[in-house]
Each structure stands twice: as C-alpha cells, then as structure tokens.
Amino acid sequence: MPVKIAPSILASDFANLQKEIEMINVSEADYIHVDIMDGVFVPNISFGIPVTEAVNKHAKKPLDVHLMIVNPDQYLEAFKNAGAAIISVHYEACTHLHRTLQGIKQLGCKAGVAINPHTSVELLKDVIMDIDLVCIMSVNPGFGGQKFIENTYAKVKRLKEIIIEKGAETEIEIDGGVNENNAPLLRSAGADVLVAGSFVFSSADPLDTIKKLKKID
Ligand SMILES: O=C(CO)[C@@H](O)[C@H](O)COP(=O)(O)O
C-alpha cells in the first residue's frame, strides 16, 4: 500500500476553511485530519462538533478525527454524526480502552488509539487486534508547528514488530512535526499514514507539498 497522507487542518486558515478543504479534495491526500482539543486533556482548545460538521459538508476525503479530550466515550456518537470515518481516542484518556474501541466500531467508524510521546507501544499489545490505527504522537499533543521527537522512529519499528507478531492489520500513523526530511525515515520504519499540518499549510504550494509527501515511497 502506498503511504497515506492526512493534512491536519489545525494549521489551515480557519477564516477560509472551505477553500482549504477544497484544496485537500483535489490533492493526493487520503484523509482530512481533524484535531479536537478540549483545553483539559491538552493545554489548548481547537474546535468541536459544529466545525467538524461544517468541514464534512465540503469534504470529499474521509475525516480522520483525533480526539485530544477527556471522557471521549461521551462524544463518540456526536463525532460519528458529524462525519468522522476514523475516530482516535487517547490511550491516556481511556480507563476502559477495549470498551471504547468496541463503541467506536459499533458506530461504523474505524477505531484509532493515539499515544503520547511518553507512552510505550508495549501497552497496546493486548488490544492491538481491536485497533484499526495507532496514532503515534511525535510531539506532545496540543499545538501544531512543534519539533519532531526523534525517539519516534524506534517506537514505529517496535510497534510494527508487535503488529506482525500478533497478525494484526493495524495501520501506524505519525502525528507531529512531519516534514520532507523525516517522512522517508518514518516510512522505512513502518509508518502507513503521515499527518502533516504546518509543513503542508505553511508551504508556498500546499498541493505540491502533499504530492511530494505522497511520492516518498
Ligand atoms: O495533533 C496534533 C497536535 O496536537 C497534530 O495533528 C498537529 O496539528 C500536527 O501539526 P504539525 O506538527 O504538522 O504542524
């Protein structure tokens, strides 16, 4: 499978969100990455359900919704109804992760688990068969434009081993500080999906930047 690219609209121009979504629609991107921050789980507030719905109204690519919130179970259905195709919850925010994953799947969405930089991939072993996508955070969640954490490569490699050992079909997504320099290394370590915010939206030609990321294979 070719690498998948998920531009993060957190770095887009919110005053021209429709235009930004239309750019992603005509690009080679695979998903639209939607970052939901509650100001509790992470020290920042982004946007919520109505904005996700508005994005979905114009989107022609699946919405990859990353919930950086406490009590995610309370909002799963609302995000499904707002258009989410993939819902990722944080390992650190779930007391009953297995139950939460079943809840996401019952809604008809793909179930993702995001892990903070300090969280070991080993903790996912017993639940890996139930996870469609693991989002390895390569920055501390909460803000776009941060520096990529180098330890991520080792985490990707180890998670890939676990997935193979267990015979799972889980995809590995990397989120935070992704750019043209680390993308090829992440890909060879085993990454399937690359989230890119600032690198895409701060570039002179976002369409071309997405194309370049897509070509790293
Ligand atoms: O979830 C997050 C941040 O918490 C990410 O999705 C960022 O939005 C990625 O942005 P860049 O690091 O690529 O600017």
Automatic annotation (TrEMBL):
Active site per UniProt: D35, D175
Coiled coil: none
UniProt keyword list: Carbohydrate metabolism, Isomerase, Metal-binding
Residues at which substrate binds: S8, H66, G142, F143, G144, G145, D175, G176, G177, G197, S198
Alphabetized PROSITE patterns for the sequence: RIBUL_P_3_EPIMER_1, RIBUL_P_3_EPIMER_2
UniProt xrefs under CDD domains: RPE
Named cofactor requirement(s): Fe(2+); Zn(2+); Mn(2+); Co(2+)
Chain residues that bind a divalent metal cation: H33, D35, H66, D175
Function: Catalyzes the reversible epimerization of D-ribulose 5-phosphate to D-xylulose 5-phosphate.
PANTHER family: RIBULOSE-5-PHOSPHATE-3-EPIMERASE (PTHR11749)
HAMAP family named in the record: RPE (MF_02227)
The protein, known as: Ribulose-phosphate 3-epimerase
